[in-house]
């Protein structure tokens, strides 16, 4: 069973990596990133289809043919991936492709572990733990990346206001240029934002499927959504309106402050 979960982990992380490339392509129109993201997603699509085919033939050999809800959701996930290919190929709406795959990714991760737990309490415990590991690893990775971005935002504001007041010019020579700081800060958001979205999606899908809608109003979920909204606004303002770096840096720090408050609000949350 352990080797199966290891395979499932690998596939889920490959799926997550493909979405990072897709989001990078949406922001920077990076053809290389799109090719890598598409290649990884095709790999996941093939494996997901393979799981479905194996499940289909195993059911054919059973006395009574019956697809479970887990099977149907996995089929739905596979169809979502297929639709993302069609949208990307014929309609060129890359942002929709990203969010379609966020839904597909969440269902894929949930179903890939759920399908390995049928009728076995120990396996169910292992699979639930593995899914929690995926969620936590995505959150920690996002927080680490976005923390670097927050430090860069602070650095940007220090350099900007020092140059504006013409103070501390000598020691500022050790800092990179404002353009370098701003572009690196943006890249931290480009990688951190989709990781946060994926981690939240993995957390929300089980809540919706189990009908525990009251948890949607939990303080940590609401704060996570608020932080994502501010980061999304950051990306929009920088990419579309080309806002000045110092305004973007302050917006970044606002989003990061919400993250920190969210992290510290764990004792008031029933989510985890």
UniProtKB/TrEMBL annotation:
Residues passing through the membrane, by range: 6-28, 40-58, 64-88, 95-113, 133-159, 188-209, 215-236, 248-265
InterPro entries in the record: Cyt_c_assembly, YpjD/HemX
Domain of life: Bacteria
Segments forming a coiled coil: none
Pfam family name, one: Cytochrom_C_asm
Domain Cytochrome c assembly protein: 72-264
Keywords: Membrane, Transmembrane, Transmembrane helix
The keyword Protein transport is assigned to this record: no
Protein name: Cytochrome c biogenesis protein CcsA
Gene source species: Paenibacillus septentrionalis
């Amino acid at each position: 069973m352990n080797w199966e979960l290891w395979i499932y982990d690998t596939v889920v992380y490959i799926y997550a990596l493909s979405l990072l490339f897709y989001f990078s392509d949406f922001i920077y129109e990076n053809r290389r990133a799109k090719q890598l993201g598409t290649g990884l997603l095709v790999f996941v699509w093939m494996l997901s289809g393979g799981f479905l085919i194996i499940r289909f033939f195993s059911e054919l050999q059973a006395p009574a043919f019956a697809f479970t809800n887990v099977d149907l959701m996995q089929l739905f996930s596979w169809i979502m991936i297929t639709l993302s290919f069609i949208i990307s190929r014929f309609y060129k709406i890359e942002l929709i492709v990203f969010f379609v795959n966020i839904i597909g990714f969440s269902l894929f991760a949930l179903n890939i572990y759920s399908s390995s737990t049928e009728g076995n309490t120990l396996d169910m415990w292992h699979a639930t733990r593995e899914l929690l590991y995926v969620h936590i690893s995505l959150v920690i990775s996002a927080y680490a990346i976005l923390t670097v971005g927050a430090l860069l935002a602070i650095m940007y504001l220090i350099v900007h206001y020092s140059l504006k007041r013409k103070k501390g010019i000598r020691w500022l020579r050790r800092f990179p240029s404002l353009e370098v700081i701003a572009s690196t800060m943006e890249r931290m958001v480009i990688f951190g934002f989709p990781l946060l979205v994926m981690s939240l999606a993995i957390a929300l899908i089980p809540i919706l499927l189990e009908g525990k809608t009251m948890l949607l109003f939990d303080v940590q979920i609401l704060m996570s959504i608020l932080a994502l909204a501010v980061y999304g606004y950051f990306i929009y303002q920088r990419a579309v309106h080309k806002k000045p770096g110092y305004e973007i840096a302050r917006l970044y720090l606002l989003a990061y402050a919400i993250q920190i408050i969210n992290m510290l609000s764990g004792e008031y949350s029933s989510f985890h």
